[in-house]
Amino acid sequence: MRNNLPIGVFDSGVGGLTVLNAIKDLLPGEDLVYLGDTARVPYGTKSAASVIRYAEQAAAALTSRDIKLLVIACNTASAVAVEHLQQLNPGIAVFGVIEPGAQASIAATTNNHIAVIATEGTVNNQAYQTAILKHNPDASVVAQPCSLFVALAEEGWHNGELVEAIVSECLRPVLRADCQSKIDTLVLGCTHFPALKQSIAKVVGDQVTLVDSAQTTAAAVRQFLIEKELLNKQERGEVCFLVTDDPGRFARVAKHFYTGQIREGEIQQIDIQHFSPIG
Ligand code: DGL
Predict the structure, then answer these.
(1) CATH of the domain at 244
(2) Among 63, 126, 182, 255, which residue's Cβ finds the most Cβ atoms within 10 Å?
(3) 52 is in which domain, residue-wise?
């Protein structure tokens, strides 16, 4: 039965665990296979060509295990690879995080002034800007790379004066744009940024709605499974973790992102570089 197959989720490393949390919360009966490409993280500073190649290999590794749906949890990979992976895997629905995040920002804004913070790769690729303008050509979108937040989140620096000072400095261009056209919505366009949500909220103030693409992606996946009658009816699903580098660091850093328990012994290291795309 296809319903009983797991959902495959991949990310460049640990950050995608924020997306895994959201899927687990919304779809507790689903079995999940999470792949973190920890040997090649970060994707956010790599060229689009490299990220597409990495994404092809990660997707091939997951589809070789029989999955019913593929979620690209990484914003940087979603920005460049969703359509490509969908073409390579016509039998499986491929979800990225950009489109649901863009749609949620359009639903949230009341004045059409939206800001996006993401990695350098996602910003340069204009993925959120394009997706938002496709649905709402009247929107004005400013995008700001904040790659430094990735390191803060992984080090567990999520709150406190120092973190807020860094967040404030990094968001300065967005807040400057705010002077001319007041943004009322800020998209957290990177897997790691929900970890800094409280600090970001303090800096931008409560007039600005924060859009977390992890939650909106999970909602889109749920909707799809309901429509296609692909929900797993069991009460509690299992989660399996795969990584491409030593599991030790993944297990340590994961505690800053994952709401469940991960024991190092449960994490399997695999080589994905020898998986070539299907087709
Ligand atoms: N997962 C990446 C993203 O959401 C952030 C970390 C990285 O640069 O690989 O864009």
Answers:
(1) 3.40.50.1860
(2) 63
(3) 2-96+215-269
The dihedrals phi and psi of 134, each to the nearest 5 degrees, come to -60, -40
CA distance linking residue 271 with residue 192, whole number of Å: 24
How many domains does the chain contain in total?
2
Which amino acid is present at 73? Answer: A
Closest CA to 171 of 149, 198, 191: 149
CA of 2 to the centre of ligand 1 (A): 30
120 C-alpha vs ligand 1 centroid, how far in Å?
A: 9
Residues 23 and 49: beta-carbon distance below 8 Å: no
15 CB near ligand 1 (under 6 Å): yes
Query: What is the pLDDT averaged over residues 103-129?
Result: 96
Write phi, then psi, for 177 (nearest 5 degrees): -60, -30
> Is residue 278 in a domain?
no
Tell me, using a 6 A CB cutoff, whether residue 213 lines ligand 1.
Answer: no
For 38-54, how does the pLDDT look when each residue is reduced to its tens digit (9 = 90+)? Answer: 999 999 999 999 999 99
